[in-house]
Amino acid sequence: MRTTTYRELLAIPAVRRILLVSTLIRIPLWAGGVVLVLHVVGHLHHSYAAAGLLETVFAVALAISNPWRGRRLDRVGLRRAVAPSLVVLALCWSVAPWLPYPVLLVLVAVAGLFTVPQFSIVRLVLIGAAGAQRRTAALSIDSVMVEVSFMIGPVLGVLAATAMPTPWALLLCQGLVVLGGAWLWLENPSLAGPEPEPAASEPGPAERPRRRGVPAWVDAAVIGVLLVAVAATVVLTSEDLGTVAALRSMGHTSAIGWVLALWGASSAVGGIVYGTLRRHPPSYVLIALLALTTAMVVLTRPIADRLGAELAVYAVLLFLTGFFCAPTITATVGDLTGLVPPARRGEAMGWHGSAMTLGSALGAPVAGVAIDAIGWEGAFLAGSGIGFVIAGLAWLAVRATPGAGGRLVSASGPGDLTGSGSTGDGAGDRRPDAVVEG
What we know:
The chain is mainly α. The protein folds into 2 domains: 180 residues, Up-down Bundle (Growth Hormone, Chain: A); 222 residues, Growth Hormone, Chain: A. It is built from 17 helices and no strands. One of its GO terms (cellular component) is plasma membrane.
């Protein structure tokens, strides 16, 4: 492992600035989601089902908008792509907190369609600023910052909703998100970095012929990576709901918060370690490892029958799965970037974000049905089963795509998977790497 990598990254001014801006945007973003639920249930006096419908509508709108917003980034640049979003979001959230539920539902859909693609922007900036040799480390540190902001945001959202009326708390959170987008617009960081010439023996994705109605960069390997992104969020959603069901079944409902926090912390640690490795396995390997450790959680009861301390056994097994959460998502970003031409990375990242959103939408009902059928263990078995199947399909897709294996090796950075170079300077590096929206 190379712990100097992160020091080198944080010495780059553009990296420091974009990480700061992204954190200041994401914290109120996560807080706003919690406040929105509390607003619907408490202030508007609707059911949790109504609050869930609101989140579903937003997720669908976001999934639709991600590729479109990413394509705009590719074609017109950051400022022209983001400016309309800032205007629409400012108008929507300035009035939405004081409107009845049906109108709020419509405005949330509009806000989802015009959401600033900040996840895509942040990763594009990091890829360009870090350079090919440090891309995986840059994406890893960003995944850690996502985990940190996700742990902080909901807590602050609850505090805001209890300290003031929820309309004002919602206005505050969403207003800060809009201000963060405006900060990105003012900063206007570069979304591109220098690209090496492709190896003569490996034609890049841009050299493939265009097929009617399908972008030239879309092939079996790209679809395989997107499926891994879907599967990753299916597995994570299954673990999330499975944990709630498991701890309730064990009579430890009060432990749900700290167990999930411990899970998130292990994901952050996994992301940090992954970014320092010289060899980075492709995403289909990591989703298989995530699926394996997820399946191991169902051993909680057999182990606890021998050792006792059921809660402690469960927490340890869940902690082990966390090590592969952030690395799996980071690997899908890196693999996808290695498979698409630089001029199409924004659109590719948009599709990646839609894949993540789709996985979250599929994971909840899959886990729910499995829990109802066989208990909390069902969520972990269903999620791990999907993960294993997609891992196999993605591996086959990469093998079936000429040159894809080499571009995945390139995406890992200098020396990765090939053993070349002991310092990470990578004389034989053949590169690339890309994002998550959600």
